[in-house]
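WARN no homologs supplied; continuing
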Amino acid sequence: ILAFIVPNNSPPWNSFQSEFLAVFFAISIGLMNFRKKTKFYSYDLFLIAILVAAGAGYFFKVSAFGTYFYVGTVYLFSALIAFHVAVENKYNDSYFEWFSVSLILASIISLGCQLVQLMNLEDYFFPWVGDNPDGGRYFGNLGQPNQLASLVLMSFLCGLYLNSKEKISRYTQIVLAIIFGLSLSLAGSKTSIISLIAAILLLLFAKE
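OK structure emitted
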């Protein structure tokens, strides 16, 4: 939850604390789920290919900033860990249920930050809520409206997952959908709204 709600205003870059916490979480979960014998999947090859391409770009000076390569490498390894945790996790559904609850709580807290920005009350909540001097699209503490919208979209799908597991009621899911809809409207992310519609259509027409 902290990875999503820490204000993005810390050196050495704005989202350092959030990204550090997210990577630390990914590595910790990976170690908890470590198996002596693990399979090699085609997805692994895909990530390795991207990593090799990024390394080649850095070696041949395609990118002017080495930081892009280092940060990208950390992201790729985190994605690799997350994939193996999802496929081979030994805690069954309990891990995904707690992860879903964490995302939903982070989205609800982020909506609170958006409302603070909407009412121009950031000074009263400093340093717990990031400043939004330009107004317009409200991003909570994630620093970018599209990033917040991505979090909200994931939370919506997590709510559907918990409802399918009968961990939350249909009425709770409806309330969450209203909360997430309000958050998306404040973020003003067109891409996430299209993605949400596509996800709903996919779920409606997908066969079990």
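The chain has eight helices and no strands.
OK
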